[in-house]
Amino acid sequence: MPDMSSSTYLSNRKRAEGLGAAKSGTEHYWGMIQSSVALLILVPLFVFTFGPILGASFEEVQAYYSRPFPAIVAALTLTVSWLHFKNGAQTAIEDYTRGMTRKLSIIAVTCIAYAAIAAGLFALVALAL
């Protein structure tokens, strides 16, 4: 008996109008573009705010990161870069793995990224306060 599912009645154009099999490809791609542009701005700012304090004493570093601008730049750079890593790694995992390995790998990468963000922000807050 022929397959009479609803997809057999769709034209090629109607099948292609969706966002792909995962229904989130366009959103994921747009998020990667946005985080890339943000990192184009944040990484040079971080280098120029982190560089002058590199090698200073703990008290100098603590006083420096008590100021809002270097602390905010460091926090934003840390957060955006780990989220960008998570999304890029997730894309690679989705492209090259299948089944339970895919699911566990995505969960592991997500946990690592959020744990690194939490640890970095905690260290920054502890340093600044």
Automatic annotation (TrEMBL):
Which domain of life does the protein's organism represent?
Bacteria
One Gene Ontology CC term in the entry = membrane
Q: Does the keyword Heme apply?
A: yes
The answer, when asked if Ribosomal protein is one of the entry's keywords, is no
Pathway(s) annotated for this protein in UniProt: Carbohydrate metabolism; tricarboxylic acid cycle
Q: Which Gene Ontology molecular function entries are recorded, alphabetically?
A: heme binding; metal ion binding
Membrane-topology annotation of the record: Multi-pass membrane protein
| Function comment | Membrane-anchoring subunit of succinate dehydrogenase (SDH).
Tell me which NCBIfam families the record gives.
Answer: succ_dehyd_anc
- Return the protein name: Succinate dehydrogenase hydrophobic membrane anchor subunit
Which species does the entry assign this protein to? Palleronia abyssalis
